[in-house]
Inverse folding.
């Protein structure tokens, strides 16, 4: 049931499990989970005008320019499918994006999934992503039923370009430098909820559902 208008943001370092938890919430609340990383990968696949620029920025482990990301987000927010609410995974990542989002809509809950750097490095080194639908697995913690094959769509599982050791270090650095400002931004607004991401997936889910009064 979803009688409130949930407008949720998932924050946390790469591999904090925020994408997995966003899927659980999306199912429970029957609202779309919008992964901005996936929107960007879709743009690359469509081979549009900006595909090369986006691909280069993503593969370097850096952030894609605000102009591109903000436009994708604005388009998404104008669509009917988000009228009942939404979950954003991967946006806003920096303060300027948070301020921009503030001009478009009001956010009801920001879930900050907290995980240490060491744990992020352990998790990312075994991560595999579906080349077709973007579903995420881990060789040890969440293996697919069949090696290198997506359970959901049968697509081929790959190591993302930015899941290399250098890419991981760079993303963590960006996270600490910039995303933490976003955490502060929402803390000041009084909508931030802290979640312990260093628990088994089911326990993280329980903590989130309980803090959102969903069970
Ligand atoms: P993700 O799938 O969320 O890990 O995102 C993959 C990559 O997409 C990131 O490393 C960035 O290059 C890019 N990206 C995702 N979200 C954003 C954002 N809000 N702003 C800028 N770049 C982003």
């Amino acid at each position: 049931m979803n009688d409130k208008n949930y407008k949720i943001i998932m924050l946390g370092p790469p591999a904090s499990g925020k994408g997995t938890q966003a899927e659980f919430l999306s199912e429970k609340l029957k609202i779309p989970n919008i992964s901005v990383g996936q929107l960007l990968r879709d743009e690359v696949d469509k081979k549009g005008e900006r595909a090369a620029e986006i691909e280069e920025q993503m593969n370097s482990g850096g952030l894609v320019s605000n102009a591109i990301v903000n436009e994708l987000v604005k388009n998404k927010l104008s669509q009917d499918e988000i009228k009942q609410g939404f979950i954003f995974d991967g946006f806003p990542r920096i303060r300027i994006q948070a301020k921009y989002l503030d001009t478009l809509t009001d956010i009801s809950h920001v879930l900050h999934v907290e995980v240490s750097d060491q744990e992020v490095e352990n998790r990312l080194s075994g991560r595999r992503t579906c080349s077709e639908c973007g579903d995420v697995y881990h060789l040890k913690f969440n293996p697919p039923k069949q090696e290198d094959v997506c359970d959901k769509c049968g697509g081929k599982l790959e190591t993302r370009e930015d899941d290399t050791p250098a890419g991981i270090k760079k993303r963590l650095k960006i996270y600490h430098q910039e995303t933490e400002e976003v955490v502060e931004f929402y803390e000041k607004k009084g909508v931030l909820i802290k979640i312990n991401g260093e628990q088994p997936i089911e326990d993280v889910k329980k903590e989130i559902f309980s803090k959102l009064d969903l069970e």
About this structure: The pocket of adenosine monophosphate is lined by residues 14, 36-37, 40, 57-58, 62-64, 69, 90-93, 97, 162, 171 (CB under 6 Å). The chain has a mean pLDDT of 92.
